[in-house]
TrEMBL record:
Name of this protein: glutathione transferase
Species of the source: Aristolochia fimbriata
Substrates-to-products reaction catalysed: RX + glutathione = an S-substituted glutathione + a halide anion + H(+)
Keyword presence, Transmembrane: yes
Listed transmembrane segments: 32-51
One Pfam family hit: GST_C
Keyword Lipid biosynthesis: no
A GO term for molecular function: glutathione binding
GO biological process, one term: glutathione metabolic process
Length: 269
């Protein structure tokens, strides 16, 4: 069967931000109009499929002002996963309203939707999920062997239970409450700082033996610390807790120098 002439235009137009390189055929088939129709239908379905796939990005319900939201976004950017942030106004209490509670019953950000069916909350669980699902992208954040994974999990748990709460209380009382026009508990912040210093002494020893917390490569154990420590330094003015410790300071420079984290910083309000 001979096709004498095909005239075609690029679809979609180049001014649309859709990465499709296929061709939309507006064609003149002298010998077979039926074949022309088949090709048109095929290409149209292909285009709709690509557009639908493009829309299937990870939806993150949270705020760029939230440490936990930034933990998830840091992981998404490290793994080169497309996402859409659905802003939740924490100041207006949107995270405590019925619509958000349907996604996260404890009223905390972030929560995610991946596709039409899968929903998840808790930032560290989300980050592990992303790192597992998209293991073929970006750096390996979870480790390859059972032993490596266990060490990564160990230090993620340390961050969650021995580090994060102390950092949060310092930031909350020295920065967040005063910004809201309220008086923070400075004594509590002072006590938390003393405890955090002891935790960082343990980090100092660990980081004298390994380049990163879980070994010689950057992992989820390091990523989990980024947002909270950043706010501790920039907003609560506690950078000396890091800089007074040679190994911790070197580690902090290493992990904040990553291109993915620099992209996160560009998103901050």
């Amino acid at each position: 069967m001979k096709i004498d002439q095909i005239t075609c235009t690029r679809y979609p137009p180049s001014n649309l931000d859709i990465p499709v390189s296929d061709i939309y055929f507006s064609s003149i088939y002298k010998n077979d109009a039926h074949l022309c129709l088949i090709i048109k239908v095929h290409v149209i379905f292909l285009i709709f499929g690509l557009i639908k796939r493009r829309k299937m990005v990870v939806k993150v319900y949270g705020s760029y002002k939230s440490v936990c939201t930034l933990r998830v976004i840091s992981c998404l950017i490290e793994k080169d996963v497309e996402y859409e942030l659905v802003q939740i106004d924490l100041g207006a209490g949107e995270h405590k309203k019925e619509q958000f509670l349907a996604r996260q019953p404890f009223g905390q950000v972030p929560a995610i939707e991946d596709g039409d069916q899968f929903k998840l909350f808790e930032s560290r669980a989300i980050a592990r999920y992303i790192a597992t699902k998209y293991a073929d992208r970006g750096p390996d954040l979870l480790g390859n062997t059972p032993e490596e994974r266990a060490v990564v999990d160990q230090w993620v748990e340390v961050e969650a239970h021995n580090y994060n709460d102390l950092v949060f209380n310092i930031i909350f009382n020295l920065y967040i409450l005063p910004k809201m026009g309220k008086r923070g508990d400075r004594e509590l912040a002072k006590e938390c700082e003393k405890k955090l210093a002891r935790v960082l002494d343990i980090y100092e020893e660990r980081l004298g033996a390994t380049k990163y917390l879980a070994g010689e490569t950057f992992t989820m154990a390091d990523l989990a610390h980024l947002p909270g420590t950043n706010f501790l330094i920039t907003e609560a003015g506690k950078g000396y807790l890091v800089r007074q410790r040679k190994n911790v300071s070197r580690w902090w420079d290493e992990i904040t120098g990553r291109s993915a984290w620099k992209k996160v910083l560009e998103l901050l309000p």
